[in-house]
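Hey team,

Filing this mostly as a record. A colleague (T.K.) asked me to run one chain through the structure pipeline before their review meeting, and I want the input and output archived in the tracker in case anyone asks later how it was produced. No errors, nothing strange. Just documentation.

Input sequence:
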Amino acid sequence: MRILVVKLTSIGDIIQTYRAFNQIRQSYPEAKISWAVEERYKTCVSHLKGLDEVIFLPFKEIKKGVWSPIVKALKALRNRTFDIVFDFQGNCKSAVVLALVKGDLKVGFDRKGVAEWPNLFATNRKVFAPKELHSEERYLRIVDSVTKSKRVPFHPIKFYLSREERQEVDAFLEKIPKNLLLLCPFSAWDQKSLRLEDWKQWIRQLRKDWAFSIVIPYFHEEEKAKAERICDEFSHVHLWKILSIPQWQYLMEHMRMVIAVDSASLHLAGVTNIPTFSVFGPTLKSVYGPMGEIHGSFQGSCPYNESFAVKCKKMRKCSAPCLKEADLGVVYEAFHKHLQGILGKKAENLPSSDMAHNDLANFQFFEKKVDPFLV
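Output structure:
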């Protein structure tokens, strides 16, 4: 049996598809599974255990006026045949992929869940998985419609990490304190983040209450500039440039908790089983937040009193401050309560800075070993 998974973008969305992929692999242990992904996101799936092939599609080259790479890649798809095609993207791009490949069963979202309606013409089985459901649950429903099998337990993921990448992280960690939180304040959408001054105040309060040191990861120069504006005011804040997803995840494993906005950082921490606390503004935590009791969050509200069922439809054009007007005191209180719950503390036993430092220095969140499905 040959199976094709179509999930083209983006990092966070691809990460949230891992549970569905795991279900497919466990349901069809003898199948050859391929994954179609945009070339710029290939590292999100190229280390996936149980995946036999990655099909790179350079759609981004079209924006540069270069058509030959994508035309060549799509022509190659015309000669491919699959028994089952799972479309987790649900837009026009994935519809092109489904239209080109041969397959008896092409399964995707129905009109309630599809991202772009022309995609409906490309599938021959349409699954009710409305956008209001949690993203991971939506993908699992597509798989369930075909496999009809019991869902398998999902273990925390683990990427293959080269010795050099591991050594780079280890060398970085040796130079800084061990009592660490990963603070991920950046997103492709500025509306999803707090003001830089709020992040600074959060860091000050963390130091006072818990004696944490902070690591801030960044992707590119724009994020680096913002991170430096935070780091320059603190001696206990350290920066890390993200060079690969496996290395990024390995760094996360050394953190007590990840604080993030709705972004790839949050989703990677979620499937890695690292405790998180996240802030949501123009998107809903019930749809995009990690699943499980170790994940806490704060849901902001629209300053213009707009309501939405999944994410704000005006986010691309709206200039609203969104989380920039969130009350940091309320946000931090929710975070503090969640952290105490993770530590098994009672609300009345609020620790002093010294107590918190000693407590956390000896605390291990996850001692149970699991068998990862990623290597």
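Quick notes for T.K.: Residues 187 and 263 are 6 Å apart (CA to CA). Confidence is low (pLDDT under 50) at residues 345-375.
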